[in-house]
Amino acid sequence: MGTMPDFEDHAAQEVKYSTCYMCACRCGIKVTVENNRIRYIQGNPDHPVNRGVLCAKGNAGIMKQQSPARLRQPLMRKPGTERGAGEFEPVSWDEALDMLTRRLARIRASDPRKLAFFTGRDQMQALTGLWASQFGTINWAAHGGFCSVNMAAAGLYTMGHAFWEFGDPDWARSKYFMLWGVAEDHASNPIKLGIEQLKRRGAKFVAVNPVRTGYQAVADEWVSIRPGTDGLFALSMIHVLLRNDQFDRDYLLRYSNAPWLVVDTPGQKGHGLILRDEAGKPLCWDEAAGAVADASRTDIRPALFGDYTAPDGRPVRTVMTLLAERYLDPEYAPEQVSGRCGVPAEQIERLALEMAHVAFRETIEIPCRWTDAYGRQHDRFIGRPVSMHAMRGISAHSNGFQTCRAIHLLQILLGTVDVPGGHLAKAPYPKPIPPGIKPARETAPDTPLSGPPLGFPTAPEDLVIDAEGRPLRIDKAYSWDAPISPHGLMHMVITNAVKGDPYPIDTLILFMANMSWNSTMNTRGVMDMLREKGEDGEYKIPFIVVSDAFHSEMVHHADLVLPDTTYLERHDTISLLDRPISEPHAPADSIRQPVLEADRDVRPWQEVLVELAGRLGFPAFTREDGSRRYSSYQDFIIHYEKEPGIGFLAGWRGKDGDQHLRGEPNPRQWEAYADNGCFFAHHLEDHQKYYRFCNRDYLELARHAGWVGSTEPIVQQLYSEPLQRFRLAGEGLYDGPCPSSPEHRERLTRYFDPLPIWYPPLEHGRIDEQAYPFHAITQRPMFMYHAWDSQNAWLRQICSANVLYMNRARAEAMGIPDLSWVWVESHLGRMRVQVKCIEAVEPDTVWTWNAIGKQPGAWGLSTDADEGRRGFLLNHLISELLPQRGDALDGMTNSDPITGQAAWYDLRVRITPADPGEAGTWPEFEPVRPLPGAQPSPGEVRYHSHRPVRLGRSLWDVLTRRG
Amino acid sequence: MRLGLVIDLDTCVGCHACAVACKQWNTSGTSGPLTDESPYGPEPSGVWFNRVRHFEVDDYPHNKTVNMPLSCMHCENAECVDVCPTGASYKRAEDGIVLVDHDKCMGCNLCAWACPYGARELDPAEGVMKKCTLCIDRIYDAALPEAERQPACVITCPARARFFGDFDDPESTVSRLVRERAGQKLLPELGYRPTNTYLPPRTAPPVPTDDVRRAQPVTGVEAWIPAPEPR
């Protein structure tokens, strides 16, 4: 091959490991640096999440690091100028932090709730939540309320883990995979790796989605469902399974609450609750004894079906009886639901039976001795190799919680949860259903909360409301509006605070959340609200602090800008205390370490939080003499213990770094991570890998590691008693808080069904559906999804302006030619956009890429860039409130009535051709001004980390060879 | 040796990771930098060696979306080489990689017109034609771990849809995949004999349902209620 030149000067290069931050997958990266510039970012081949691969975003990290939109120094809104005018002046960090400390100390000493601290794409919620709790404000949450809380909540209230972060399909063994809704970022690389594994083994891949792009493109079968009807589709498949007697009887009896007895006294207090003994233990019917018995006993023969009489004379029925009766009803028959779902009845029936075949005729048995939590010995793991994944497409509807519960019901009936080939939990899950943490309610000056601001209510007593039933949180989470809202409602914070409903606040801190643009509903309205003043001339939200690494649209509306570092310039932990990187059989966590030194006057946000905590004297951050306990974020991570031996990082604990999962602080823990590719993974033993909700040895490990408080079995909840308690409250039949307003009573009664139900998305019931015949949804392309900044100079070359995709035949029938301009109108407003006709969309649905459209001038883009001139946001048409009808629900959040999940995909629109001559994207937004000290964006980029070493062709070769 | 790529259209989800990995590696590689024009302005465009196109096949509801990454095919009869007036374009005798000698290229664009796969891109800042080198600056770099001596696009592909190897070796992964999966060349009728080969989408076998379908469906819960225990 001749001699090759030395293309790379390896001696001058340094390789460092870290963790990507382009989305929530948090893949391991291996970064080669030379001349203080990045040569190459690649996937870490040893990393449990991505095993060496990296997506388009991760590969574009260089352009993130080069972005002209990077913030360079702390900024203050220029005195005398209006908020949102974009006039800033630089301040020093000392000035900025002094001013902020004074303000926060005053708030903390009077009414800590007047600080609302909401974080967007936060990957350190254990720290931000602790900080808020120590500050003493209940007004804290991350972005889950407008992202995927329906999935997390449904999973944690049903099976003890959830889709995506808390669970994964068993890619290595599954033989049938059903993907529900858009999922291109939740997760990114792991799902791509998984799909390849499935296809290599010849497993079937079914995609349920109104749009066929992305992962759906390679599916073996496409179910082109109408948005918001997935729950009905799932329940109809359950109908088919029951009709054909296809469910996992043994699994249900052993591991779920199917045999538990439910009190059947309609109209009376206690109706629908689980029959319990005096100790509160659930009871079942022992067929052997002909009497009720503790359902956790293993020496009985529990009845799966039947009506019985409780010892106190009340009629009771098994959960499975209620379930089967409900879903055998002809209203769930495929031919009944077909029209509404837009899915042929034949397909519904066949898919249900295909899954039954794979579950019960292609069962996997793995020989392995294991002991369950009741002490029973087993000699094998039985696996039903059907797996599922669902994310945003299910979540972003106001019926998403119940729909996700319906999907979990399907999984449990097939016996597929945490079994070989099924859906597997990822540590620290499974946890008790739901986890035992309750949201904090009481606040007092200069006093930390008694617990975390977010938790899992199981009864109306757990709500965060006052004695009159009024919301106590600014986002009205855990109020009658959204009783089980474990991620808060970030999308309501600005609207509520500006209205002063339930009360005005003083300061809003936003971290990495673009709440004036693509992360908000009702964009224009929210921008106006951010600038809205009271009669006293003061802003309704008096002070807004934004921490971000880039010049986002939200930075434009800040009073104080605290510039963050990029992900390549910081220390971070991705912790088992909140959102770790565990794989099903490898509990894992990881760190980031600086790969480059920041060349700007910026500070990592977590460093700022630790600094503020010290300045404000938070008890957990100070010693008894008032001095600071932690000198830095790194010091905090090393020494903070949630309970003895449990800290943010689980690996290399103990003074000598030889203990894992639990152990004393190790002063050299960061170094140990850096030496090990920046991640820690604990590999489960074979007998701990499945049935972990009831696997004794796994649960003992989980207790040792602090993931669960006890080794009690975690019983899957087909029937949700917490929901029934809320429903009883709606009916006025609950001994405890009950709502007083008719609309709340109606919502609780209707939606808090203890067994999954389907109902039309709320927006549809408050508009004329004929007038708005189309469903309008968004997806984000895989090369940008969750990329949290930019536009990245490389990625925007793949797409810099979005269009509205319509079904070709439908568009033709409406006289809408390809690439023509149309008006898209919702109940909130209208916009003009360009249409692209495609085959890959259900005819009643239109869709576009989300967050391509930018406010002109933001993100380092020129004011004439495509994103600002041609790109658009569908957000302009989506309201944060339900459509107005002049009734009591007019002020109600456009969210799931159970969880408060933002109902982005409930949107309905009408589409009309624009008049001849009408062209161009509308509305247009005023440009964002450049920040002081901003470097002008270059007109050409020729990035390289070293001078190229060329390869030449010899003259001899030219002369002697033609080709 | 005949080096090239196999691309699996059955698993390619069209994520563009390969295209961006290529851009990233090569902008600091032997052909770099790869110029980007208007990187933050209207109609941004730059030099890419690998681009992913998306096609639709058939009409709704029988449509399928096919993602098709396209880069230099390293043809055996490389017309782009034949038309080069300066000898800048050449196909290496040792391994079949088609390259451009930047010092000899005058940027006349003839090769780009000759290439039916759209695989050549003129760097506007240098006036030089650039193209996929199969990461020649990786695959022969003995200082890299052996597993990493592969093109950047192959290493990064999250769907493991890309394979690199020697098509002359019948035992190589690429040769085996082409045999087993009936690999296809693009535009074979043109006679350029491209080396890169595409694996067509697979169809999963039908899943039987007769063995789980009840002749007499259950209509009510009574079917499962146990008979009372004898007293």
Explained architecture:
The complex is a heterodimer of chains A (963) and B (231). Chain A is an alpha/beta fold and 963 residues long. Among the domains of chain A are: 75-150 and 436-563, Rossmann fold; 158-428 and 715-720, Dimethylsulfoxide Reductase, domain 2, CATH 3.40.228.10; 721-754, no CATH class; 762-913, Barwin-like endoglucanases (Beta Barrel), CATH 2.40.40. In chain A, 23% of the residues lie in helices and 16% in strands. Chain A is built from 24 helices and 33 strands. A seven-stranded mixed sheet of chain A has the order 5-4-23-22-21-6-7, covered by helices on one side. In chain A, strands 28-30-29-32-27-31 form a six-stranded mixed sheet. A four-stranded parallel sheet of chain A has the order 11-10-9-19, with helices on both faces. In chain A, β21, α15 and β22 form a beta-alpha-beta unit. The longest helix of chain A has 18 residues, at 93-110. The radius of gyration of chain A is 28 Å and the shape is globular. Chain A starts with 13 loop residues before the first strand and ends with a helix. With 231 residues, chain B is an alpha+beta fold. Chain B has a single domain (3-203), classed as Alpha-Beta Plaits. Chain B has six helices and eleven strands. Chain B has helices at residues 17-27, 79-82, 110-114, 136-139, 152-156, 173-180, and strands at 3-8, 36-37, 45-46, 50-57, 64-71, 89-91, 98-100, 121-123, 128-130, 162-166, 197-199. Chain B has a three-stranded mixed sheet with strand order 10-1-11. In chain B, strands 2-3 form a two-stranded antiparallel sheet. In chain B, a hairpin with a 6-residue loop joins β4 (50-57) and β5 (64-71). The model of chain B has no long low-confidence stretch (mean pLDDT 96). Chains A and B meet through β3, α1, α6, α9 and α11 of A and α1, β2, β3, β5 and α5 of B. β33 (940-941) of chain A pairs antiparallel with β2 of chain B, so a sheet runs across the interface. Chain A: GO terms for molecular function: 4 iron, 4 sulfur cluster binding; metal ion binding; molybdopterin cofactor binding; oxidoreductase activity. Chain A: Pfam families: Molybdop_Fe4S4, Molybdopterin, Molydop_binding. Chain A: Belongs to the prokaryotic molybdopterin-containing oxidoreductase family. Chain A: Keywords: 4Fe-4S, Iron, Iron-sulfur, Metal-binding, Oxidoreductase. Chain A: It is found in: Cell envelope.
